[in-house]
From TrEMBL:
This is Dehydrogenase. Residues 344-716 form the DUF7133 domain. It comes from the Bacteria. It comes from Pedobacter psychroterrae. GO terms for molecular function: copper ion binding; electron transfer activity. Keywords: Copper, Metal-binding. Residues 86-132 form the Blue (type 1) copper domain. The lineage of its organism: Bacteria, Pseudomonadati, Bacteroidota, Sphingobacteriia, Sphingobacteriales. InterPro entries: 6-blade_b-propeller_TolB-like, ARM-like, ARM-type_fold, BlueCu_1, Cupredoxin, DUF7133, Membrane-bound_put_N, Quinoprot_gluc/sorb_DH_b-prop. Pfam families: Copper-bind, DUF7133.
Length: 947
């Protein structure tokens, strides 16, 4: 992706609440003659935190009571940042470009907290304290140090001799390390080193950072209880300073830089080593050379050092650097293999015990596989993306669809059929309803299948157009049938689409970028299912029909709720009154460090491999697979060359998703599995876009053009079955709904959906729905009844009283599917909103309200907002806001009355903002009667992420 475009388009919804003693900079300086303030601070804003001029991270901002204080921030990187005060409730403008500046001005009346409002930045560490002091502020001065000696001679540990006397160098990093200038000729011109005396040393600076080596002092005796020295440079495991006990070579202390040039003092307690000999070792084993084509080298792969001295008592430095201030990136991960043949690649992998990996197909039979599915016969339909990364001229596309089959069960895909050639910029495909559904921006197409010849039964039909392809790795992708009979897909944040039927005007189109969309194959309806995330490239549904997506760059795991708006990598939500979005469901990320996800690439083994994910498979195949895999989410980690597994657990209205043990290591840096699916035996097929370059580039020459693989991962209990579900009777297809392998269920449902309504099928499915003891089997029957039109409204209304919260929830969603709830349904929804004890049911009700005329939402919303137990739920507070917000335009006074009853902490605040945005004399008059008095959330012990 274009990283600059990523960052410069990242805009953030801001909140301004007038405070009694705080002013935005614009308001303050618009007053003539008031451009004075008593105290100024300048901070550099970075993902590492706010950095003071002396290098201190998130320094305490001190001011005497009553002073006017100005805090200026300078953007230290190409990233969006701002600064806000928590209690004063003011914020600066958002910085975008490196070097941009902004300020806030306030009166120092009380202690406060400053922080960055950009989503995720405060959590990453951009937060500090403001301390109001009574009386004048005293300047802190550290005590002078004592130089180390050996045999009565003062050692050159501060380099003031301008040489490396008393030191020994290895490698080339310290060939010419002594520097006497600031700015340093070894660093970039805008970097301030701030060294003590006349000299400091560097292992290469930002000019010669590729050099490696060590610098070791002579041993000397510890004569005082404390020591200090100055350090800066990379926060990398292999750029560090060590203090080593001389008699046993034990490292007794080590520290790195922080990824900055400013030298900062480090204090070491050496009381336990008094009268013992130690030595200093300065290590630079890091070249900083990038393995990623579009990301530059890490110029912080060096270390700067100065001024080692002893102290009798612990010195106090205002800008002291402590190990706890630094998140250190580990050494580069070992890359075992690269550029292997298909057979060698399969042998090199490390599957779990009981599993084997077999090469099922490889180049030249398969090249550049970007998407695949498995049909009702267990055959693989695979899309080859020869045109990527640029769309060809009309009629000149070179993409194609292949059909692969294992005819004898040996794991090899020995039969290969070309279904269709000449496609253009294909990004996904799915089979069902008599044809192949093809995502090829700007189109979603349908190609009918001649079932006798496995060839197209006609020309591609464009069912939708308007899909963008500005960024060709963030287009529509990952087509998959949902349990409700809709065709689901995902879409990335940097491609702008305006989707509708061919020839439709804008008024009949849907705008989307990041999110999940769906299309109904018979009603021909298209809609945005949920909005946000970054570049989702994987979606699947669990046993209860709940979808999950895997994404890149931002936190990677989201439980997808109909109508939800999620944390975005960039850009604004389409509704300007969103005000806040729902955060990730995952409680972890797969990368190391707080300098953004790219910094952890190829260093993140311990966290899961890196930020780039592709594919999503919730395993519901062979019942004999180890139990820990069922209903868990598999995704490929591209930079980590492995398959991650995440574990979802119910929490409130939704799920919290935790990190599980990795399922498989490919041990090959060229490996790029894009998706996987399980078949009728429970075995898993995976497609591998095998490529040295692991990141998207619009330059076609950056990507390989001749490679591709398909692998089959099998458990020792998997048993190959030759089958064709299309030949099964209706009765057999219904019975397949009880199979423990979901492959049978999904394909049976799809075939029954294609066959259409059938009273006998409906009767059999209703028997399962009514009497099967397993709620997942009931749900399977419910979904297939829905797609085969075997339900009437009364059936669904009766299910609203079912003992299972999952059944009640899905009855709500299916009743609201057509966006035309009857009065009877609305009445029952209002009753459930008031009395149902399930947070998930209340979540589905909140979703359903977004599909209901705002004028008909009042009773349901009024009941939903009053559940104190939902005030700290991960999803519900914001889902309630999204449902209630449009009511402000219908009746602002009534909307405010309901909002005032809300237990969610910010719903009233948001409604006041929303009514204020109407900006009419009537709305202003209505607001006069209200004050912002948010209800206190109930003490449930759960962290609240939504508002």
């Amino acid at each position: 992706m274009n990283l600059k475009r990523l960052l410069t388009t990242l805009l953030v919804a801001i909140i301004f609440i007038p405070g009694s003693y705080a002013y935005s900079e614009a308001a303050y300086f618009q007053q003539p003659g008031t451009g004075k303030y008593d105290r100024e601070y300048t901070l550099e804003a970075t993902m590492l935190g706010y950095i003071g001029s002396d290098g201190k991270r998130n320094p305490v901002i001190k001011a005497s009571r009553g002073e006017m204080v100005r805090i200026k921030i300078v953007n230290g990187e190409l990233m969006t940042h701002d600064i806000a005060l928590e209690k004063a409730a003011i914020k600066s403008r958002v910085l975008v470009e490196k070097g941009d500046t902004a300020s806030i001005v306030f009166k120092a009346d009380k202690n406060d907290v400053y922080y960055c409002t950009v989503p995720g930045h405060r959590m990453a560490g951009m937060v500090g304290k403001i301390e109001v002091v009574e009386g004048p502020i005293k300047k802190e001065v550290a005590a002078a140090g004592i130089l180390a000696k050996k045999g009565g001679k003062t050692l050159n540990l501060n380099f003031e001799k301008g040489t490396l006397e008393d030191w020994k160098a290895t490698g080339d990093a310290f060939t010419d390390p002594v520097v006497s200038e600031d700015p340093s000729p070894m660093h970039e011109k805008d970097m301030k080193i701030g060294f003590v005396g006349k000299y400091f040393i560097s292992s290469g600076g930002t000019k010669n950072y590729k050099r490696t080596g060590t610098l070791t002092s002579v041993p000397f005796t510890v004569t005082q209880s404390f020591a200090s020295f100055q350090i800066s440079g990379g926060a990398l495991h292999d750029t560090r300073v060590e203090l080593v006990q001389a008699d046993n070579n034990k490292v007794i202390f080590q520290i790195t830089g922080t990824g900055r040039a400013n030298l900062q003092p480090v204090v070491v307690d050496l009381a336990a080593y008094l009268n013992k000999e130690i030595f200093i070792r300065i290590v630079d084993s890091e070249t900083g050379i990038s393995q990623i084509p579009y990301i530059g080298d890490d110029k912080w792969a060096h270390i700067n050092f100065d001024d080692f001295v002893f102290h009798a008592a612990r010195p106090n430095f205002p800008n002291e650097l402590k190990p706890s201030d630094i998140i250190i990136l580990p050494p580069l991960d070992a890359v075992l293999n690269a550029g292997l043949s298909g057979v060698e690649a399969a042998k090199a992998m490390s599957p779990k015990n009981g599993f084997t990996v077999k090469l099922a197909a490889a180049e030249p039979d398969i090249v550049r596989p970007i998407s695949f599915t498995i049909d009702h016969r267990g055959r693989l339909w695979v899309a080859e993306a020869h045109t990527y990364p640029t769309r060809a001229a009309e009629g000149q596309g070179k993409d194609r669809i292949l059909i692969f089959e294992d005819t004898n069960g040996d794991g090899s895909l020995d039969k290969r059929t070309v279904f269709k050639e000449g496609l253009n910029l294909i990004s996904s495909l799915e089979v069902g309803m008599g044809g192949v559904w093809v995502a090829a921006a700007p189109y979603l197409m349908y190609i009918p299948i001649d079932k006798k010849t496995d060839k197209p039964a006609g020309e591609p039909q464009i069912v939708l157009d308007g899909f963008g392809y500005q960024d060709t790795h963030e287009m529509l992708n990952n087509l998959k049938w949902g349990p409700d009979g809709w065709l689901y897909g995902t879409h990335g944040v940097f491609t702008q689409s305006n989707v509708g039927k061919p020839g439709a005007p804008d008024s009949e189109r849907t705008k989307l970028n990041a999110g999940v969309w769906r299309y109904h194959p018979t009603s021909k309806k298209f809609e945005l299912f949920a909005e946000g995330t970054s570049n989702p490239w994987g979606i699947d549904f669990n046993d209860y029909g709940n979808p999950f997506v895997t994404v890149c760059v931002i936190p990677h795991m989201f439980h997808v709720i109909q109508g939800a708006r999620y944390l975005r990598q960039a850009g604004n939500h389409f509704n300007p009154y969103t005000y806040d979005d729902i955060k990730e469901s995952g409680d972890h990320v797969h990368w190391i460090g707080d300098r953004g996800p790219h910094a952890g690439n190829f260093r993140s083994n311990s966290a899961g491999g890196g930020h780039a994910h592709a594919g999503a498979m919730i395993y519901l195949g062979n019942e004999n697979w180890p139990a820990e895999y069922r209903n868990n989410i598999f995704m490929n980690n591209i930079h980590g060359s492995r398959v991650n597994v995440d574990i979802p657990k119910r929490n409130g209205s939704g799920y919290t998703v935790s990190h599980g043990a990795d399922f498989l290591l490919t041990n090959d840096s060229w490996s790029q599995w894009l998706n996987f699916r399980y078949d009728q035996s429970g075995s898993v097929f995976a497609i591998d876009w095998y490529d040295k370059n692991q990141c998207h580039s619009p330059n076609p020459d950056v990507h390989q053009k001749t490679m591709g693989r398909i692998f089959k991962i099998s458990h020792e209990t998997d048993k190959w079955v030759k089958i064709d579900l299309a030949k099964a009777s209706d009765k057999d297809l219904v019975n397949y709904h009880l199979n423990k392998n979901e492959w049978y269920v999904r394909n049976a449902r799809l075939i029954l959906q294609e066959r259409g309504p059938n009273k006998k099928v409906a009767k059999m499915l209703k028997e399962i729905l009514a009497n099967n003891p397993d709620v997942t089997r009931k749900l399977r029957a419910l979904w297939t009844l829905h797609v085969t039109k075997g339900l009437v409204e009364q059936d669904l209304l009766s299910l609203l009283g079912n003992e299972s919260e999952y059944i009640r929830s899905w009855a709500i969603q299916l009743l609201a599917e057509d966006k035309n709830l009857s009065d009877a349904a609305l009445k029952r929804f209002a009753e459930l909103a008031a009395s149902d004890n399930s947070a998930m049911v209340r979540l589905y009700l909140a979703s359903a309200m977004q599909r209901t005329d705002p004028a008909k939402r009042w009773a349901v919303m009024e009941a939903l907002v009053q559940h104190a137990e939902d005030a700290t739920d991960h999803n519900l507070p914001l889902m309630l806001w999204y449902g209630l917000e449009p009511c402000a335009e219908i009746d602002a006074a009534k909307a405010l009355t309901i909002a005032q009853k809300a237990k969610a902490p910010k719903l009233m605040e948001y409604m006041m903002r929303r009514v204020g945005a109407i900006n009419t004399p009537e709305s202003k008059k209505i607001l006069e009667g209200y004050s912002l008095q948010p209800a206190k959330p109930a003490a449930t012990g759960h962290e609240h992420h939504g508002m």
